[in-house]
Amino acid sequence: MSGGEIQGQLIPSNAEEQQRCHNMGITDLNKVFYMDDFCGGDDAIFAATGVTDGELLKGVQFKGSKATTQTVVMRAKSGTVRFIDGQHSLTKKPDLVMQPE
């Protein structure tokens, strides 16, 4: 995989958030940030876990007392791409168990 771009812009919603930007040294709130602004070197790691099914990852699947997830982890420096299939016990995480309505 190669190529692609990500852009972002800070849009504070109140004076407190504007002050936080200023405290971090961001004075131009109209600035568009590009990928090199977020991460300028090759020592970067990207990870994403599917929530709903998509082109790259499966979404969370609930099967009885377990849930499964799929995650991709990419490391820029080595070019490594890993896919991780996770199995999660919902009985050990009772706050996450979906309750019937």
UniProtKB/TrEMBL annotation:
| Molecular function in Gene Ontology | fructose 1,6-bisphosphate 1-phosphatase activity
Q: What EC designation does it have?
A: 3.1.3.11
Q: To which pathway does this protein belong?
A: Carbohydrate biosynthesis
Q: Which UniProt keyword terms apply here?
A: Carbohydrate metabolism, Hydrolase, Manganese, Metal-binding
Its EC top class is: hydrolase
- Asked if Disulfide bond is a keyword of the record, the answer is no
Residue stretches spanning the membrane: none
Q: Which Pfam families match?
A: FBPase_glpX
Q: Does the keyword Hydrolase apply?
A: yes
* InterPro entries given in the database record: FBPase_class-2/SBPase
- Cross-referenced PANTHER family: FRUCTOSE-1,6-BISPHOSPHATASE 1 CLASS 2-RELATED, FRUCTOSE-1,6-BISPHOSPHATASE CLASS 2
According to UniProt, the name of this protein is fructose-bisphosphatase
Q: Which organism is it from?
A: Tigheibacillus halophilus
